[in-house]
Amino acid sequence: MSDSNDDKTVVLGGAAAATPPPAPAPAAARDNSSHNALPVGTRLGEFELVGLVGEGGFGIVYLAHDHSLERKVALKEYMPSSLASRANDSSVAVRSERHRETFEVGRRSFVNEARLLAQFDHPALVKVYRFWEANGTAYMAMPFYDGITLRDALKERGSPPDEAWIRKILSPVMDALEIIHNQSCFHRDIAPDNIMLLRDDRPVLLDFGAARRVIGDMTQALTVILKPGYAPIEQYAEMPGMKQGPWTDIYALGAVVYFMITGKTPPPSVGRMMQDSYEPLATIAAGRYDDSFLQGIDRCLAVKAEDRPQSIAAMRELVGFGSNATVFAPVANVSPAARAKPAERAVASAPDATVVRPAAAPAQRPAPPVAQGATPKRSNTILIGAALGGLVVIGIGGYLVFGRQAPVAPPVASVSAPQVAPPAAQSPVATVSAPLAQPVEPPKPVSLAQAEEALLTNAGVDFGVVVEKVKSPVVIGKDALSFSLSSAKSGYLYLLLHDKGAGTLSLIFPNALDPENQIAAGKAVRFPRPNWTFDADQPRGDWEVMALVSESPRQFDKLGFSPREGIASATVAEVEAALSRAGIKAMAGSVQCADGTANCGAAYGLATFSVNETDAPVVSPPAKKPAEAPAPRAEKTPPAEKKPGGKGKGAGSDGNPSEEEYMKKLNRDLDQLLGGKK
Question: Disordered: where is this region (predicted)?
C-alpha cells in the first residue's frame, strides 16, 4: 500500500487559516507530551481512568472502567492543546483570553458531536453511552473498540483485497451513512484511517470531529476541514451553489474503495477541475473485479456533485448491491456452494452473522409461518427479500439469540397392532417410539450488569429521552432524588433504580402513590414529585437510575419484585435469579397492550444517569468552656467623688479614681469594719 499523505486532514479558511496547526513535535517531545493527560486512577463520576489510549491536538482518549455497569469504556476528553492546558486542580484552563472564544466554540462542537452520535444506533457507528461537561471541558464515554484501522489492515494484506472483502467492508459503512444522512447529518471526513476494523472485520466509522449538522439550505460558513485525496470539490468552497450533502460522503467512500483497489488516492478534486488526470477503475482494474462494480465507483468519484449518486440508496443500486442489500456472512459460516459464484456472495452489515442461502441452492425446509400481527424486531433485524431462500440470525452482542429452530417431530402415539403372526419370510416389525426427551440445560446465569447493558443496547434513539438537572451528590438524611426528564415522543415512563449500597433494584415510578406515568412529548417531568420523594438513606451507596420511556404500557413482573414501602423492589440476587429464569429481555418488562391484543408498539427509549450518595457532614459541637469559680462578693463601696478639673496622677482617661485613691479608700473602709469606727 502507498504511504501517501493524501489522507492527512487539512484545515482551510476561517480562523484556522490564520493560526495553522503546530508542526509535529520531535520524537523525544512526543514521548513526554502526555503532561496534559489526567493520571491513572482519576475518578470522573462513575468512570475510573485505567490507562491512556491516545492524545491528539484536540482531545485525549483514556481507557476507563465504568463502576456502574462494570464494563470497559473509552473516555474522550476535549483538550485542544494549542488553546488550553491542564491546571493544578485537574481542570482545563484556557491559555489566553484571546483564545477563549475559539475554545468555547470547540467545546460546543465537541458536545454537539456527542449529542449527535448518541442519537444513532448502528454497529458501524460509534455508540456514545454518555456525555457531560465538567472541569472546564467536556467528556464522552464510548465503547472501547479493539481493532486496527482500515489503512493498517490494507498494509498488512500487502496486496489489493478481492471484491468480496471490499463489499464486506463497504456495505455496513453505507448503511451507517444512510442513517445519519436521513437526519441531515454528514460525516465529511471519511478515509481509511477513520474506519476501524474489529477482530471479525466488522467496520466502525470513526472520527466525527469534522461533522456538522446541516439544516435546510444553511450555507457552509464554517471552517473547512478536509482530506485532499478524499474530499470532493464542494468541500473546498463556501458558496451556496456548492452545497454539500449525501453526495459529499459518497465521493469520499468511493475514494476509499479506490484506495483499497489501487493503493493510492484519486487526484485531489480541486486539481481535477482544471485538468482531470483521474484513471477510471473500469480501465485500470478491469478483469479483477465486476465491471458494474468498478463503473459504479467511478460514478461516485465524478467531480461534479450532480453527476454522482445523490443518495446511499442510489449508490447501492449503482455498485450492484440492489435495493435489498444482503448481509455478509463470514467465510466460516458460508457453505462451499454459496462461495462458488460471485452472484451468491452475501455481504455483512452487522456483527451477528446472517447466512443468506441463494435461490439456486438446494431446496430447504420452509421456515415456520410468522404469526399474523407479530411485532418485528426493533433494531439489528435484517429484512431479506422474499425471493431469498431462507436465513439464520445468530445472537446479537452475546446476549440475545434469535433463530429458526429445526422443527421437532411430534410424539408418535403408540398403536397396538392385531396379534397376527407374521409370515416366516417377513422381517421383524420395527418398534416406533416417541422421541426421548432431551435433558434440559440449566438456565445460564444473567448478571444485573449484563441486563442493564442489554437494556441500553436495545433502546431506540428516536425517543430522544433527555435527563437534566440531576442533583448529585445527595446527602443521607437530607436530600432526595432530584432531576428533570423529557422525551421527544409521548409514552409511558418507568424509573428503575439500582441502589448499590442496599443491593436492591426497585421500580420507583410508577408506584402506589403515583400510578399515572403517561407523559407528553416535549413536556418536562420533574422529580421529586409533589406527593412522594425517594430519599437518600443508609446504607450509603451510589444509585444507577434507568429512565425508560415506552411506546406502550409495560409490566415488570418477571424481575422478582415484591411490594416494599409502596414500591416494587427486590435484592440484586433475586433479580439476577429471575433474569436467569425469564431471560435477559425481562429487564425491559413485557408490553401490555391497552386493548388486550398483541398489536401495540414495543419500542422504547432510555436514559441512564448516576447519583452519588454521601454521608451528612459531621458537625463537631462547640467546645465547652471550663466553669469559672464564682467571684468573691465584695461589700458595696460608695463611689469616689469626682474631682473637677483635669486628670490626676495615674487617673484613667475616662475620669475614674486612680489606683492610689482607690487603695486609700479601701483601707479606710477596712479600718472602719474592723475597729467599728466611722
Answer: 1-34, 616-678
